[in-house]
Amino acid sequence: MSASPATTGPVGLRTKPTGKRRSTNAPSPDLSHNIILYVEGVTKSFDGFKALNDLSIYIETGELRCIIGPNGAGKTTMMDVITGKTQPDTGSVWFGQTIDLLGLTEPEIAQAGIGRKFQKPTVFPEHSVFENLELAMACDKSVWKILFAKLNALQRERIDEVLGIIGLKDQRHAKAGALSHGQKQWLEIGMLLMQDPLVLLVDEPVAGMTPQETERTAELLVGLAGKHSVVVVEHDMNFVRSIARKVTVLHEGHVLAEGSMDEVQNDPQVKRVYLGE
Amino acid sequence: MKSQSLLLSALKADRGGQVLLGLLAIAAVAVPVFNLLVPEGSFFHLSTYTVTLFGKYLCYALLAIAVDLVWGYCGILSLGHTAFFALGGYAIGMYLMRQIGPRGVYGDPILPDFMVFLNWKELPWFWEGMNHFPVALLMVVLIPGLLALGFGWLAFRSRVTGVYLSIMTQALTFALLLAFFRNEMGFGGNNGLTDFKELLGFDLKTPGMRVALFLTTVSALAIGYIGCRYVIASRLGRVVQAVRDAEGRTRFIGYQVESYKLWIWVFSAMLAGIAGALYVPQVGIINPGEFAPINSIEVVIWVAVGGRGTLYGAVAGAVLVNYAKTWFTAAFPEIWLYALGALFVVATLFLPKGVVGLIPSRKEKLA
């Protein structure tokens, strides 16, 4: 299953120093080529239906990428492959120069620094907002360490800071299950922030949000880019236009076009399959 | 120091636990007084039979806590927990058998009666060392723990969950039932282990020893409860509850879900083993019937009736249902199983939080 190192592109300079140190014990990716995520030639079919068809996408360090495409274009499957939920039939996925994601499990990938926000907000409903953030926090997550883990002042400060960013300071002791839909979306973004990932995969972050909430989410995601690499899958075209620098259009599991919002909108192929013209 | 303060604050917030520990403390004083100091024939005298009966209930309560820990908090519905309970019981039973020594019916200084009866000439290897109390105690937790580790490692790694896992736990306990029925296994076949005489040199039949066993059970339940409360109050407790509510999500924030399930599963199996080890000297027998799948299902009913995911509810359920069972099987023996079934249906339909759910919590009172 694991991709051979002979794959073109990402391998090679393995001796370069690794990227910035993270607070977990996971290895840091080697970002020497300024590309943080390589998805190359990935194909995945379910019962003969090709959800991904020779898909290749490269995410640069610190960029904010929007991925759009009609239903069934393979957006969610792509995220499943990157986060280890689904193993592709062929192709390779590399995190930086040296980390082969196809050989890792979901928690290992998360610990390595790839965070994911789901389409349907999934928070832990029986835990308080504070506890949700605490659970997501980047730290050594082995069983015995967690049994005796205690929050230190720095970590408490960080949770407070994130509570401020996501605007849930007053709800810190509320059960997450009792939050409104939009608040849950925000809490999930907060959980992503607590993980302090290098790459954030964000699936439809503004679904069900009010215009004000959408605007704040846009500000937040734009603010995160640079420090983190952010990949956003979204249907809301206005939202995409407001944040996107580079847009990738997926169609039938393949990249149809890539470029600025204006470029892809004027692409004749995109017009045909996606904008329905 | 730090973990102590976590435990204290957890117990401070746990009203049900305070009540439980208070009741246990009262029982620890009252039962010996009314049994040993109040003269027989007095209205206030507590019979030794009742002391042992209470002791049995508390063993069941410890087993119920173990089941609640994995079911109520981690969402693993075990329908085979009495397997661990019975294995703990067998471990202590082997020690008690070795303590009989030459006083058995056949008078063999080493071999227990059933081995002489089967014409065995020497002790099977796994009976070696079981005449030492510390070894037996170690086996009480080690054997259930190792079985749980092996079973859990295979099941959780393959991501077997829900009803499939429950069925496998039933199969596990049923397989052990069949195995222990066989004489060749070397555990006394269908008669099991019985006719115990002494524990650590003390006659098991004396009222003083009965009270000592009762007090040991009370302490074990109290310590077991506090231990479980600590686990639940720790961040590990929050992680296993997260696994229960959204397993996939827990993986994506970086937790090895399998390791967490395995940890809580093995811990719970060891608790069940301890409960079994306390049970056997009090009832005086352990036989393969304890592995019967129906027993494990009954434990789940205790927890459901008492209140799942509270720990003290499991204790309440175990004591209430078993008290009802004692009464019913004496008064109307033929309808006990119907009553048990009805109890389960009523609890599921009308008391989703169990009996302890009827008591309004402090928060609700304020509101």
Question: Could you give a short description of this structure?
Answer:
Chain A contains ten helices and ten strands.
- The total count of helices of chain A amounts to 10
Number of helices of chain B: 15
Number of domains of chain B: 1
Largest sheet of chain B: 2 strands, antiparallel
CATH fourth-tier homologous superfamily of the domain at 64-73 and 113-273 in chain A? P-loop containing nucleotide triphosphate hydrolases
Could you walk me through the main structural features you see in this protein, from its secondary elements to its overall organization?
The complex is a heterodimer of chains A (277) and B (367). The longest helix of chain A has 15 residues, at 181-195. Chain A has helices at residues 75-82, 106-112, 129-136, 143-147, 153-165, 181-195, 211-224, 237-243, 261-266, 268-273; strands spanning 35-46, 49-60, 64-68, 90-95, 99-100, 114-117, 199-203, 229-233, 246-251, 254-259. Chain A has 277 residues and is α/β, with parallel strands linked by helices. Chain B has one domain. Chain B has helices at 2-12, 15-37, 48-71, 81-100, 113-117, 133-157, 162-181, 207-233, 235-245, 247-252, 257-283, 293-306, 312-331, 336-350, 362-366, and strands at 193-194, 198-199, 202-203, 285-286. Chain B has a two-stranded antiparallel sheet. A two-stranded antiparallel sheet of chain B has the order 2-3. In chain B, helix 3 (48-71) packs parallel to helix 8 (207-233) and helix 3 (48-71) packs across helix 12. With 367 residues, chain B is an all-alpha fold. Chain B has 15 helices and four strands. The A-B interface holds A 24, 83, 85, 105-107, 110-111, 115-116, 118, 122-127, 131, 134-136, 138, 141-143, 146-150, 191, 195 and B 2-3, 6, 231, 234-236, 238-239, 241-242, 245-246, 248-257, 259-260, 263.
